[in-house]
Amino acid sequence: MIKIVILGAGNIAQHLYKVFQTTETLHVVQVYNRSAEALSYFKNTATTTNLKNLAEADIYIIAVADDAITSIANKLPFTNRLVVHTSGNVSMHELHKKNRRGVFYPLQTFTKDVTVNFSQIPICLETGEKSDFKILKTIADAIGSTSYKISSEQRRALHVSAVFVNNFSNHLYRIAHEICETNNVPFEILSPLIQETAKKITTLTPYMAQTGPAKRGDQQTIENHLEKLDKDIHKEIYTLLTQSIAKTYGREKL
Amino acid sequence: MIKIVILGAGNIAQHLYKVFQTTETLHVVQVYNRSAEALSYFKNTATTTNLKNLAEADIYIIAVADDAITSIANKLPFTNRLVVHTSGNVSMHELHKKNRRGVFYPLQTFTKDVTVNFSQIPICLETGEKSDFKILKTIADAIGSTSYKISSEQRRALHVSAVFVNNFSNHLYRIAHEICETNNVPFEILSPLIQETAKKITTLTPYMAQTGPAKRGDQQTIENHLEKLDKDIHKEIYTLLTQSIAKTYGREKL
Ligand SMILES: NC(=O)c1ccc[n+]([C@@H]2O[C@H](COP(=O)([O-])OP(=O)(O)OC[C@H]3O[C@@H](n4cnc5c(N)ncnc54)[C@H](OP(=O)(O)O)[C@@H]3O)[C@@H](O)[C@H]2O)c1
Ligand SMILES: NC(=O)c1ccc[n+]([C@@H]2O[C@H](COP(=O)([O-])OP(=O)(O)OC[C@H]3O[C@@H](n4cnc5c(N)ncnc54)[C@H](OP(=O)(O)O)[C@@H]3O)[C@@H](O)[C@H]2O)c1
């Protein structure tokens, strides 16, 4: 049995709480949040809004907004216990060194109230002390997640990469949605292509999976497309990504 | 029974041939290709490399490279028959008007030898004569595809949109792959996030699904990310897409 205190009551806190409840080995003994409101979610579990009242536990998981992590870690009223955060974007060393430190970062985009399947979620683990790694690994295993040993520097790289594949891809979907609306075409028609594009990289590298006019060096099609775009920002994005693809495939002149 | 002649022996020709074979109502009577080599794929079916020898059929499907469509349509040795192409990028009017014209455009990315499930593929249909629409619709129905009536102008918009969601998204995956390699992180770790990002737009609009520092206006994270990127072209793409997202959510100042 691993005794866990969760600090924070948002998205990640709720998803972790829920999945920990499904295991026999992970026991959430308490949830802390600065405000009482969001704590109503955590039924049947002790809660507190006062850091001084934190319960004894094997691990403290800080799942609050990135810029609040350090200040909460500083205020913890104990030393030499295992304290981890869940952020992709914050170094482990921003946790106060009076405690044993670590990171438990689930690399996925979570939406409140949308159930997630933790067996599909990779978790990036890091600890200051080697002996603490086992606890994090046991927690990841208990919820069925695949885990990876990832340093703070590597995690930072992953976080930037995640912006490209998640935030930026989604924005490209948004642009396609706008173009469809302007032309009175239902956006759903693109959904199978979007799913297939994502699926392809599970069997081919993105380098191998690339297709299209930029890769082929098909200048005529590129010009047709630019002509069809109304918004300047869409033209700019089209041009820059086309240049970048052309460069990747050795077509410097496009 | 609908009698079909396929012109072309590439990717699309092979996939259409294969799926037509699975139906009881669609009969491929002949396949034409300019060169004999690729015709070996079409076993048990008459083939020819000479347009003069084309068989009689209800519909002629031209599935050749975009820039060869017009010249093949011009050379057809008959008139007033139904002739369609399969391109997202070519107007129906580039087919010679001596025949009845149409378009049968499967909106998906096809890879040779990778089986595709046509029930998941939307098909964009267009015909010059209203009465021909029914034949195209019957073919789409027979292979289990959802079909849409789409004009040449709408198809052009869809083709540009497809570049954004397919070619450009894949290039963002490629950039993430490069960042991962530079930092010694396995790229597979991003796969669940990529799949989830694509899946989200089946239940939320891309506008609603957007997350991340650009949307939040989190300048500090944006600066951290730019610092972490080595390549100038990656920085440029990061900056432009960040600006575009910021603008979408009314944060003009980022
Ligand atoms: N959402 C994701 O997809 C995702 C994925 C992986 C990792 N993460 C990481 O998980 C952590 C939590 O993210 P989240 O999505 O769960 O955020 P969230 O849903 O916005 O919840 C934020 C939590 O932080 C608390 N908080 C905010 N500012 C605070 C402050 N100044 N002092 C004390 N508490 C404060 C909030 O308390 P109140 O209820 O009082 O406002 C709330 O409990 C972050 O480090 C994030 O980077 C998120
Ligand atoms: N691939 C996709 O994902 C996809 C998706 C939707 C629509 N389409 C459309 O489907 C059509 C065919 O594309 P594909 O992917 O099947 O192409 P492909 O695999 O490259 O095959 C091209 C075919 O066109 C023939 N061809 C090329 N240049 C020619 C010329 N000058 N004269 C006569 N024949 C010529 C080739 O003959 P040889 O064997 O002699 O070279 C071959 O049969 C295109 O209009 C394309 O836009 C493709």
UniProtKB/TrEMBL annotation, chains A, B:
Matches recorded under InterPro entries: 6-PGluconate_DH-like_C_sf (IPR008927), DUF2520 (IPR018931), NAD(P)-bd_dom_sf (IPR036291), P5C_Rdtase_cat_N (IPR028939), TM1727-like_C_sf (IPR037108)
Domain Pyrroline-5-carboxylate reductase catalytic N-terminal positions: 3-84
SUPFAM superfamilies from the UniProt entry: 6-phosphogluconate dehydrogenase C-terminal domain-like, NAD(P)-binding Rossmann-fold domains
Domain annotation DUF2520: ranges: 121-245
Name of the protein: DUF2520 domain-containing protein
